[in-house]
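We now fix the convention by which a protein and its fold are recorded. The integers have meaning only within a learned vocabulary of local backbone shapes. A record is reproduced here so that you can trace the correspondence yourselves:
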Amino acid sequence: MGKAQIKLSDHFDYKRLLQFALPTVAMTIFTSIYGVVDGFFVSNFVGKTAFAAINFIMPVIMIIGAVGGIFGAGGSALVAKTLGEGDREAANRLFSLFVYVPAVCGSVLALAGFVFIPQIAQLLGAQGALLDNCILYARISMVSVPAYMLQYAFQNFFVTAEKPHLGFAVTVGAGVANIVLDALFIAGFHWGVAGAAAATAASEFVGGIVPCVYFGRKNASLLKLGRARIEFDALLKAATNGSSEFVTNIAISVVSVLYNMQLLRYAGENGVAAYGVLMYVNFIFHSMLFGYSMGTAPLFAYHYGAQTHDELHNLFVRSLKIIGILSVVLFAAAELLARPMSLLFVGYDAELMALTISAFRIYSFSFLLVGFNIFSSAFFTALNNGLISAFVSFMRTLVFETGAVLLLPLFLGVRGIWNAIIVAECAAFILAVVFVVANRKKYHY
């Protein structure tokens, strides 16, 4: 059986499970590369101030775009469950609703962001050239916010539609467009921050609009865009299911602000720059874990809806083993790549590179546990239990990590900031295990 023929209703061994999830993993990796490529070109071709501006304002853009994650993750779980129950017409109606709503919300939020981004940047502390670059990058980025939200949502729906490979192809196309345009606009035309924003915006239009064209026409997938009606119960359920992803995105942004504040206090500008490099690598590594969790979520949702408990258990056990192996691989890779990645981004400054490598060596230990925490949150979203999923995400980031990054530096200085993520992931892991064990009989996994 070829990869394109794999069905949600199949029995999955390791090979088939990886075949099904791999396109989504690759898709999330390419999506994470957008910001990384911007950072690389801006840091090396424009300079530190522009590089700092992108990292400074990016959390705000991520908060605005996070709405797409609500209807992508939460909506796809509900659609997959409906497919598992055998009601394809209702599944398509819900799918259409969960595409149209983020498109409308994205347009409204983009307009608001365009108008108020100067005040937001000033409120966060940006001044002078930093403020000017923040406003320029953000305002250009607002143009593509609706497409960005749709791209985020379609990453989930391609899997539910049993077309993960097509989703991967669209994302690769968008990623390649971003890389080529970054090189052209920044290195070639010398457009600076504006070039970085324009390249990313163009790639997001590719990732958000092309799927609309595919699903809007007759296609070979399980899903098709069509008429939809406002179903408040479904929207509330999707919002609840997807709230963990929303909380995660919001929390990441808030925590990033706190990290920058603490690093500025304890390590100065170099500390902020070093953290920026860590976050770029973190985006790529975490995207692999998010990709697997996102790629397998429709399987859990489908078999939960179909009440095929044996297959649900099979998927759960195999996934835990895969996440465990991937976590060890990522930890080893982070240790090995600490110097090369630091050299790639900040090799022009010896002191900054030394600080970045040191931080990298500590931060890499977080990859041993973060995969389990990401998977557990996505797992409960797939089971349509958004409350547990959101609580795990909320505690992991807004409570454990925020607390650690504020308290540990009081005792350990700058090393406490780098160790904060490790303490937070350990605490979140214990919490996730408690919920997984407590709900095992209820969901029969």
In short: The chain has a mean pLDDT of 88. DSSP finds 17 helices and no strands in the chain. The first helix runs from residue 14 to 45. The chain has one domain: 10-443.
